[in-house]
Amino acid sequence: MSATLTSIHYIYLIFIVIIIFAMIKKKDISLICIIGIFFLGIASTGSIYRSTMGVFNSFVYAAKELMPTIFIISVIVAMSNVLIDAGINEEIVSPFKGVIKNYSIAYWVIGIVMMILSWFFWPSPAVALIGALFLPIAKKVGLPAMGVAISMNLFGHGIALSSDFVIQAAPKLTADAAGIAVSKVVHASIPLTIIMGVVTTFAAFYYISKDIKSKKLFDKAELEEKDESKKLLISSRPIRIFLAVLILIAFLVDIIVMYFAKLQGGDATALIGGTALFVLSLISIVTYKNKSLEQITNNIVKGLQFGFKIFGVVIPIAAFFYLGDSAFNDIFGNVLPHGSQGIVNDLGIYLANAVPINSIVASITLTVVGAITGLDGSGFSGISLAGSIAHLFSTALGGGTATLTALGQIAGIWVGGGTIIPWAVIPVAAICGVDPFELAKRNLKPVIIGLIVTTIAAMFLI
């Protein structure tokens, strides 16, 4: 099998190289993607006005593809805001106060709770939900604020965000770019997530324990009392407990339904989103009473603002990478050579015939590319690139698309999602009162060790 490459293919490839170089230099790549789309349009249509239209239409296409993901994040954040106001978040974690007896237990309990909540609420809301509550408990048993921050980072922004098993925003982006089903990426990511998570968190715990024993891990700031004395809009604790249990049951039912009804991807997201909207409405009525109608709207708007702020950077980048597959014909017409399977597929077929690729080279490359895409600190803006390259390499290898896609996704989000990029760890650093650069520095060694081990494992799984 061979592929005919045209100027369109070379332009696409050149812009991928430029995008990677820009990420290495820590530059924003939105403009590069816009220019890339325009040049692809010029090469395809030879028309300036049609190429200009193509830029806008590609944004619309990307937004349409990403809209369910943006909405689910927005709804979850809106619901989280209500839970914080009501004080229900405190009741959700209160049973753990009697469990945490020493710094070892504190590290693992905080991390596991952060991971579980992050799967359902995403890390940013989860930080707000548990940070201020667990920090005082942890400090009392000998785990400094830096240790709490590391645990929250690695379990939440690392394990939970990179796997994203419940909301499935990350697998959606990478799966679309790789041209495979979301379920395949999720399934392939399970062993890699376990390996990465176990290696990284145990390595971090080793270094934390060593520093605590040698008195090198110091608490740099104290959590202000105002976090402890926050006014709760639902004053009755029995009511808060009842509502907390009701919410947990509601999402547990969702998980059961997803399992038996085999709901994945968009269907699973829709079930969680719908449940979150009902929870948001119910808790708002109980919390805000006669002002509930206005507050429901206000919290939804705040959630949407958060969602579009997070994913706004993704749209122009996704718009470019979607053109590597079926979106190209929708935007610029059927101008690729006869028999073309899409730009990325064509490049993959060509690569298979021109360059010897093996599982070792492919795995290392996906990890490096994923890490590079995370340098901008968003974690999500470049993982589409990892999916595209995984597709390209797997075509050359004759398989392994899902594993390579999952590997690139894990590397990209562990680096950029909030573990070793200083400007990405600010939320956790702020809630724990530690220096973000110091936090990123302490996360660096465990994450690198984890990526090396996970990459080696992927070589055998392809």
Task: Please provide a written account of the structure.
The chain is mainly alpha-helical and about 450 residues long. The protein has one domain. About 75% of the residues lie in helices and about 0% in strands. The protein contains 20 helices and no strands. The radius of gyration is 23 Å and the shape is globular. About 0% of the residues have low confidence.
Radius of gyration: 23 Å
- The strand count comes to 0
Rounded mean pLDDT is 85
Helix content: over 70%
State the shape: globular
Biggest sheet record? none
State the domain count. 1
Runs in which pLDDT lies below 50 for 5 or more consecutive residues are 220-228
> What gap, in angstroms, lies between the N and C termini?
22 Å
Into which percentage range does the β-strand content fall?
under 5%
Number of helices: 20
Order of helix and strand elements from N to C terminus? HHHHHHHHHHHHHHHHHHHH
- Which class do the helix and strand fractions yield? mainly alpha
Write the layout of secondary structure elements.
Blueprint: H1 7-24, H2 30-45, H3 48-86, H4 88-93, H5 103-121, H6 123-140, H7 145-163, H8 169-178, H9 182-213, H10 237-260, H11 265-288, H12 292-311, H13 314-322, H14 327-332, H15 343-354, H16 359-373, H17 383-397, H18 401-416, H19 426-432, H20 436-461
Helix pairs in contact: 1-2, 1-15, 2-3, 2-13, 3-6, 3-11, 3-12, 3-13, 5-6, 5-7, 6-7, 6-19, 7-9, 7-18, 7-19, 7-20, 8-9, 8-17, 8-18, 9-18, 9-20, 10-11, 11-12, 15-17, 16-17, 16-18, 16-20, 17-18, 18-20
